[in-house]
Amino acid sequence: MADHRTNCCLLLPAFKIPLTLGAEGHFWWQLWKYFLSEGFCFVFLNNSNEQHCYGVSIMLYTNNITSDFSQDLIYLANKLLKVRTKLDDKYVREEPMIRGPKFLVRLRSHMVFENTPVKIFCTVEGFPMPVRVKQHAVTTNSTISFMLSLFFSPASMLPKIHYTKIHITFLEMFGPVFATEGESATLSATMTLEPNLANLQPEAQWYRDDTRLFDSKWVKIETGRGFSKLTLPNLYKDDEGLYTLRMVTKGGTAEHSAFVSVADGPPPVPAAPGAPMDIKIHDANRDYVIVSWKPPNTTTEGPILGYFVDKCEVGTENWTQCNDHPIKICKYPVSGLFEGHSFYFRVRAVNSHGISKPSRMSDPITAMDPTEFERLHGVPSAPGQVIATRETDTSVLIQWAPPKEPNNLIGYYIDQCVQGSKNWTSANHKPHKNTKFVVSGLTTGETYMFRVQAINELGLSDESQESAPLTVKAALTTPSAPYNIALLYCDGHSMILNWKKPLRSGGAKIKEYYVDKRRRGTTMWREVHIPPITERVYKVENLTEGAVYQFQVYGANLAGLGPASKHSEDLTCDAWTMPEPGPAYDLTFCEVRDNSLVVEWQKPVYTGSEPITGYHVEYAKKGTANWITANEKAASHRFLKVTGLEVGTTYVFRVRAVNAAGVGMASMASDPVTAKAVAGSQEVSCVVDEKSGDIVLSFESCQINEGSKFIWKKDYKEITDFSKGVVIKSEGIHSKLIFKNPDKEDFGTYSVSVTNTEGVSSSYTISNEELVKMLALSYDIRHPVIPLKSELAYKILERGRMRFWLQAEEISSNVTYKFFANNKELSGPNKMAHDVATGIIEFIMDHFTEENEGTYTCQITDGGGKAQSSLVLIGNVFCKSLCPFSRLPLMFPFTTGPHFSEFLSLQIGDDCSVTLVCKVANLKKESVFHWFREDTEIIPDVKPDLGSGVCKLPIKEFSLKTAGIYKATISDDRGKDMSQINISGKVFDDAINKLSQLAGASAAELVINCTATGIQLQFDASAVMWLIIFLLIDSQVVEPVEKDKGKYSIVITDPENSHKRTLDLSGDGQYFQYFSSLISFPPESIPVVGGLPDVVTIMEKKTLSLTCTVCGDPKPQVSWLKNGSEVEPDDQYVVSLDQGKFASLTIKGVSMEDSGRYTMIVQNKYGGESVDIVVSVYRHGEKIPEAKPTLTPKTIIPPKLPIEIPQPKTQPAPSAAPSTPSPAAPKAALGRGVKSPTPSRRK
């Protein structure tokens, strides 16, 4: 047939191809290559949003088609239809509901020239697939035209362009901002995008009062996937306004707005005006420019008198004033500029109070001729969005949008930066003219970001926004074919198959396998399973017994389906009944060295008639059939180290299982392996960590790649149980297997292998003997003993002191220690010390006496180390150590510094005084003496008498409150000495007993003292001790009766004697007559008061009522005082006495002036009493003041004898300040009044 060529357009049918292409998919790629070789050009459109690529059409153009090619076209068209049908049947998962056809993204019209490629895009939805194919062929004498057409509904032919709609929903939106000049403000928003496509992100546009904002010194904009943020780092009044974020897509805009208010900052001087705003530059020329501005927004400080204009040359920080006198209008021509130099300008306002802060400085402006300025009208604007995509494992493809203002663009510079650093480097050294660039020389596995700058003859534009971070790795490809399909077992109806994984994974994990079968003699392959399988062992069922089958396997990863494996050999479906085991499988190698390697395998599926007892490993040189058995004795485990290999020689291996019936079938031969160590191979090391005591297996890999992992095994079984304290730590090329809690069961062979390398691996065998030694070493490290240079010893010091000390080889500053005497810890932090430099630890005992005989021990802890040392001072050894103290007085004259010649002691005087006494010696004029109680210094009323050397400290009112540890120190430039005494326990009890003995022996006779609240019986025990007995006649009626007559006694005892004092109130003596005089006045009685508090707190504007109960006959008189002055009743102060019993003072609407001390006085002819109450008023909202009751007693006003109603007198109350007078009766006899019981209030 003649070779006739003509123009032809071939429109192939719509089809869909899974991302995981099968064997039919492989035909597609071969078809594309063939068309290209014939001069065709085509477009293949796909949409990868789901698991399938939906191709709309393939248009083939050529002017080189021959008539001989027509039959091929018809064949190919039919083949395409068949392939499409098979792919649909094989890979498409039918959805449960039928849906009508729908265009998601529509086609649009195109008009192109002949031989010009065109891309046609659309996305359709529906089930079944909404396509209709019409086949049409026309034959003439010399021309054959063939066309397959895809018809859509008429609506798809509309010329209107529909963009993919991106729905934007704001999640977090910025609100109004109220700030002050000089502060910063941030506006941010987060949003969701539907769909969220990495290469189809909306553009974020920020506006202030409808003016577009761009990244600058005053505005920082950051936008990412799903968020946008605007930062104003230094606010001026110019920044005030309505801010709007617009997310712009081709299908629409979403926006959000909020107002930013900027208040004036503090002026430089009070009442100075605010800063001018909106400074602009006009009419730039060779030597002058015109500056204009707006006045401050507020003038409440006073009228503006004028403005000063300042300039600063770019590159300096020297601001100079342009006008000598303030100008009153908001425009000023600045002259005297240097041509070609660039300047900043700012303005300051002036009023009668001072000068304002400067305005925000202007953008830089260059002084030059206007025509020249127009010719050189600025640098380009910044390029648009930058997108980075993977290409190879060391390069990345960068694409970007051109600048909106190219301004005579020359090209682009591309910068790169490792994520997390700020070290930007240039990827090209001369301008690149296109908007695509391949950045090479990158580090595999590292993550980079990219940006682009445009350049023209004036300079560089601003940088574009940074690209999203991208990790450098090779683009994914489909895996290679699996191989070596083996039969592991057959029962006559099914077969268990195994195969080896593809040698090349395509850059991603192989996730799925597909198995096909066919009978021998047929050509059609059939899938044996619908869902893919993930393991390399599969049971093919529903086979015909006796039939012969062939199998092939595909591997698939994220990139798609790889090629089919070579089909298996003929496998007959006959049941296995032999007694020997079936073949082992999955032979792998590790620890390959020059003369050895380790073989591992999996247990046979078919075990035969008896359990498997071992394995034999055989090997042969590659290309030979001379198999050599590596182990004459069957190995009981599924690994074996084969030795005696020739370096550099390539071998193949196989394994036979053994049971009682004999040796089983041989496994399929392994892949060839060469006996040669990987260059730089390291071995596993085993040590005991010197600090922690852990047993550590360490390995350093000579190779590491992306995705490499360290796999640790024990006896070649991966370690997965970490409950016993086994820890794996891997970082970089190093990995460790750590035994935190090693025990005797941890012996065995430990191996490590590194994935994604050339077989890097190693092992270490821990024998039982070695493990015992390491466990002992681990124990010693975890329980260390601090070595001592010298054991605990003693040294005799002056003044009866003893020093116990020892010396360690080495101690740290964190050392702790304790001293014990006869198993009792010795205390006193000031007595213990240590020296890190020398390792000495010591304890000083102040008084070493006969009572200190016994055993002394020091325990030391430093980190994890411990030590202990003991010293026995018993018998002759103790006497020898104590002997020098008998000569202590002779030793004192040889002491070089001040010291105590007599230590502290407690002395009780005959007058019951208690005094601490000590004696010091070897003093000089500069010597200083101090007293302390519980480490708090005491300043005595009388200074120590250092002239005589005797120092005394009186202890007033000796009681448990004054007990404690007392110290005395004497020091000067020659040294310091200390003495202390613990006044507690036995020492305190002895002192109290001595005081009791003195008090009882010196006690006077009982005397009677009558008061308004009862009768007091008291006696004078000594000059400093009073023991008082209060006798309350009646709890309700304070008047004596007949039954209260009798004898009253008090007994004072001490450890040796007892002392008794008696008062007779039952006969006709003097005391009885006085007692009877009190009984002769019924029903009259002395007035008493009850029920008032000591302190009252109340909030202002409230009403305060002070109420109490009084009693007495005749009825008592009641009066009230405030701060010593009598309270005059009025509308605010109301004084009342109800029923002669209930007295009250009511203050209405209390105020702060009502705070103070209030005194209530009640009295009749028999006497009376007064009580003080403190009133504290606080304001609303204040914290309630803490009520602190004072210990102010009632003041008793006794009657005079003969009894008469006393006249009121004014004198200070016992608890009031001297300046605050309080009324009181004439001074009573010595004694303190006792508060009477409060009667219950009657209603």
TrEMBL record:
The keyword Repeat is annotated on this UniProt entry: yes
Chain intervals for the UniProt region annotation (Disordered): 1189-1243
Every Fibronectin type-III domain range: 275-370, 382-475, 481-575, 583-680
Keywords annotated in UniProt: Immunoglobulin domain, Repeat, Signal
SUPFAM superfamilies: Fibronectin type III (SSF49265), Immunoglobulin (SSF48726)
SMART domains: FN3, IG, IGc2
Biased composition (Low complexity): 1189-1219
Entry-linked InterPro entries: FN3_dom (IPR003961), FN3_sf (IPR036116), Ig-like_dom (IPR007110), Ig-like_dom_sf (IPR036179), Ig-like_fold (IPR013783), Ig_I-set (IPR013098), Ig_sub (IPR003599), Ig_sub2 (IPR003598)
Signal sequence range: 1-22
Keyword Repeat part of the UniProt annotation: yes
Record domain Ig-like: where: 159-261, 666-767, 898-984, 1083-1176
PANTHER family, A to Z: MYOMESIN-2, TITIN
Name of the protein in question: Myomesin 2a
Species whose genome carries this gene: Astatotilapia calliptera
Gene designation per UniProt: MYOM2
